[in-house]
Specification:
The complex is a heterodimer. Chain A is α/β, with parallel strands linked by helices. Chain A has 18 helices and 18 strands. In chain A, helix 3 packs across helix 4. Chain B has 18 helices and 18 strands. In chain B, the strands form four sheets. In chain B, strands 10-13-14-9-8-15-16 form a seven-stranded mixed beta sheet, sandwiched between helices. Chain B has a six-stranded mixed beta sheet with strand order 5-4-3-6-7-17, sandwiched between helices. The chains are: A alpha/beta, B alpha/beta. At the A-B interface, helix 4, strand 2, helix 8, helix 9 and helix 10 of A face helix 6, strand 2, helix 10, helix 11 and helix 12 of B.
Chain lengths: ~500, ~500
Amino acid sequence: MGSAMEQLVLRVRKAFQTGRSRPLSFRLQQLQALQRMVQECQKEILGALAEDLHKSEFNAYSQEVVNILGELNLVLEKLPEWVAPEPAKKTLLTMMDEAYIHPEPLGVVLIIGAWNYPFVLTIQPLIGAIAAGNAVIVKPSELSERTATLLAKILPRYLDKELYCVVNGGVKETTELLKQRFDHILYTGSTGVGKIVMEAAAKHLTPVTLELGGKSPCYIDKDCNLDIACRRITWGKYINCGQTCIAPDYILCEPSLQSQIVEKIKETVKEFYGEEIKKSPDYERIINLRHFKRVTDLLEGQKIAFGGETDEATRYIAPTVLIDVNPSSKVMQEEIFGPLLPIVPVKNADEAIQFINQREKPLALYVFSNNNKLIKRMIEETSSGGVTGNDVIMHFTLNSLPFGGVGNSGMGAYHGKHSFDTFSHHRSCLIKTLKMESANQLRYPPNSQSKVDWASFLLLKRFNKGRVGLFFLAFLGILVAITIKKYQAVLRRKALLIFLVIHRLHWSNKQ
Amino acid sequence: MNLSKVLEFSFSPSQRCISDSYHCILGPLGSSFQSWMNPFADTLQSLQDAFSSGRTRPAEFRTTQLEGLNRFLKENREELLAALAQDLHKPPFESEISEISICQSEINLALNSLHQWMKDEYVSKNLATQLDTAFIRREPYGVVLIIAPWNYPLNLVLVPLVGAIAAGNCVVLKPSEISKNVEKIISEVLPNYLDKSCFAVVLGGPQETSSLLENKFDYIFFTGSPRVGQIVMAAASKYLTPLTLELGGKNPCYVDDNCDPQNVANRVAWFRFFNAGQTCVAPDYILCSRETQEKLLPALQRAVTQFYGKDPQSSPDLARIVNDKHFHRLCGLLGNGRAAIGGQSDEQERYIAPTVLVDVKETDPVMQEEIFGPILPILNVQSVEEAIAFIRKREKPLALYAFSNDSKVVHRMLEQTSSGGFCGNDGFMHMTLTTLPFGGVGNSGMGMYHGKFSFDTFSHQRSCLLRSAGMEKLNSLRYPPYAQRSLGLLLSLVENRRKGQCTLL
C-alpha cells in the first residue's frame, strides 16, 4: 500500500511536470469546470452533506456551497491580474533593468479536508491551488463519509483526472500519504494532528498551511445591545451543532449579565428552532458517536441553565448554556466543538483580557460592545487568528480577509487572493543585458575607497523616475543645444556616466 | 555567592550560553535546577514577560531600537570591518557592499517606512459588510529566534533583526560561533544599543542550538543548510512555530552560445569568487556547450587576473575559507575533473585559488553538494533544452542564472525552471533590491524577507471585521427558521458577482 500512495504522487508529479497546469487558459477552464460541477451536482452535494451532518438543504447551501460559488466568481474574474508579474521599484544600479516578482506554481499540493464543513474546506483550498497552477491531491475527511465518496466520484468527471486526484481513506492512508513529498500541504483539523502534519512535512522541507482550532472567546461588554449580541451569538454557536472551528466557544462577561444572557439566548433558540428542537430541520447533529460521547462528557458537574438533553440514537445534543463555569473544569480545557456554551464570569474587561492571554491564541476573538475604544483595546491587548466585533464568524465570509490562525490555532492563511499567494512561489526576477559592462567595472577588484563610496551611493539611493527623468532631459537638452554634431555619438555613450556623476555629487552634498 | 556563576563554572566552556552582560540572577534552588536542565528558560521567560507587557509594540519604541541599530552600525564600522577581515579575510570593499551597506539600507528603509508598514490595511467588502470596517492588522508574533550563519555574519544577523524589531517582536539572536570575531561584537557590543529586556544573544555550538530549539518560540528565522533546516522545522513542529528557512543548493548558471564571453566571464567570476565563494546565492556551476567553454576559459582567466592579479594569494581583494573543516572539504573537491584555472591551495592561510574545473562528470562529488567555495565546475550541454532538463532533475536552487544576448533564451530558462530567485545576465544583483522578496523554494527554503517582506514575515496578519449592532434586519436573513425566498436575497449580499451580470431579485 505504501507503494500505491508513492505511485499516485509520482503520477501526479509527472502530470505537473508536463507543464499542462500552468497556462492561464487551462486554469480558467478547470475552474469553470469546477463551477459547472457545483451547479450541476448541487442536489447530490446537498444530499451528501445532509446525510453526513443532518444538515438541511438551506444550511448546506448557505454554509458551504455559496462560499464556493463566491470564491469561484472572484477567482475567475481576478486570476488574469494575479498571474501577471508584479514590477518592483529599482535602485540606481538597476534602473536600466527589468525587476519583477513572478508568481509560479509550487508543484504538487496536498489538501487534507475536515469533516465539519466537508465540502467548503476541501474545495475552497482546491480552487486556490488550481488557480496558482499546481497539481492537487485532495484527501477529504473519512468522518464525513458520503461527501468524501461523492467528491471521489464527481471531481474526476469535471477536472483533469491526472492533475487533480481525490484520495480517500483513514488514518493509515493519511499517514502513508504524509510520507510522500509534496510542495505544499494545507491541513484543516486539530492542533494535535497539525503537529504530526508539520513534522512529516519537515522531512521534505514542505511548507505548510495549518488551519487548526482552539477556544474562541466571546466577550460581552456591559455596554452593548444585549438582544442583538445574543441573537448573533446563538446563531454562530449552534450552527452546525456547534461544530465550527470559529464558533464562539465560551462567553466571558460580568456576573450581573449572566442571567439576562441566558434568557435571551433561550428565547432566540426557541425562535430559531421552535419548541421541539429535535424536529427542526435546521438543527444539525453530532458527526459520530465518539464526538457525541466526548461532548456529553463535558456536561459533567456543570450547572446547566437550559438545554442539556441528549439522544444517543440520533446523536442529538440540545442547544445548551452552562453558567458559573469554573475555568479549570473539563469543558474549559479543550475546544468544545459542540452545542454547549459555557459562561465564565469575569470582573471586567481587564480580567477578560488576562483570561484570554493566559491561554493559547485562539482562531477567532469576538467582542460585543457599543464602546469602540473597548473593542480596540481588546484587539490590541490580545492575539488571535481573526476578529469579528459585534458579531461572530462573519470575518470568514469576506474573502478579501486572509483566513488563518496564529500560535496553536495555526499558521498561514487562505481565501481569495490569499489562497493564490499561499499556493504560489513568488520568484524574484532581475533581467539585465549583457551590454553596459563599463558600468560594472565599478564593482570589480582591484578595489579602492572611491569605489566603496560609489558603491554605497548606487546601492542606497532609490531611483525616483520622475525627478531624475526630468533632470536628465533638461541636461540632455542643454547639451544638444551647444554641441557640434560629430560629438553626439561620444556623448550618447557617456551621457549615463555624466548624469550619474552629477547626481552623485548632488547626493554627497546633501549628505 | 552568585548561583549563576557557580553553574557557569560547573560546566564546560562550550556550555557558556548567555552573554555576561545580562545573565539572570537565579532564584531559589528549584528554578536554578530548572535552569540547569533548560539553561534558556529564565531568559525566554523574561523576554516573554517583556513582550506581554506590550513594551515592544508602540512605533516610538521600535523606532528607538532601529535608531540604536543605526548607531551601532555607524559607531562600530571600523571594528566590524576588522572583525570581518579576521573571520573571513573579507576585503573592505566586499564588507562594505555586502554587509555594512546592505544593513544600512535595510535600517534606513525601516526607519523611513515603519509608520506606513504598521498601518492597518483596509480591504474591499461585499454588500453584507458595506457598512462595516474590514482590515488586516499586522501584529508581532512575540519572541522570535534568529539563527544566523557565518558567511555574512553581520548581514544575516542584522537584516532579519531589523524586520523582527520593526514588526514589534522581542528577539533572541543566535549568531554563528564559527565567525568568532563578529560573534563577539554581536554579543558584547550590540546589546548596549538595544533595550536589553527585549533582546538577548545566545552563544554556543550545535549542542546549545539544539537545546535552545527545545524551547517554544513564536517565530523562528533560520539561515543555513537544508539538512539543519529540516532539524529546525521538526523542532518547530512540536510547538507549531511558524518559520522562515533560508537554505541553499547548487545554483546553476547557464551560458548560451549567443553571448559576449568576456562580459559573462567578468560577471560570473566576480559573483563566484566574492567572499571566496562562500555565498548561498553564488553561481555554483556553469552549463554551456563545448564551444562556449573554449571561449569562456580564457575570458575567465582574464577576469581572474584582472581582479586578483597574477598571484591571487597576494591580492588583498580575495577572502579566505572560514575554517579548517571547510578548507579540507574544498581541497577534496579540487581533484574533480581538471583544473583549467587555479587549483592551488595553502593550508596555513586557508587559501584556495579561484578555480575553474572542466571535464567534470555529473556524478563527481563536486556536483553532489553545494560547493560554497571558490571553485567553479563547468559541465557541457548541447542545447538550452538539455540545460533545462539537467536543472529540472535536481532540487530547486536558491538562485538561477542565465546568460544570453537573446532575451528569449533568458525568458525560456525562467519559464521552464523553478528557483528561489532569478537573474538574467548577471549574478546575485537581485538580492540588492529590497523591493524583491529574497527566499528559497523546495529544498532551498520557505518564506522570504528583505524590505517590507521582512516586516510581513515577522508579523501575524490578523483579519478584523468590526460590525455595528445596527442593520440587524439584514442579518435576520441568515437566521433559522429558513425560508426559500430569503436564500436569494442572502446570496446576493455575500457572493462576489461576476462583473456585467445583473440579477433581478
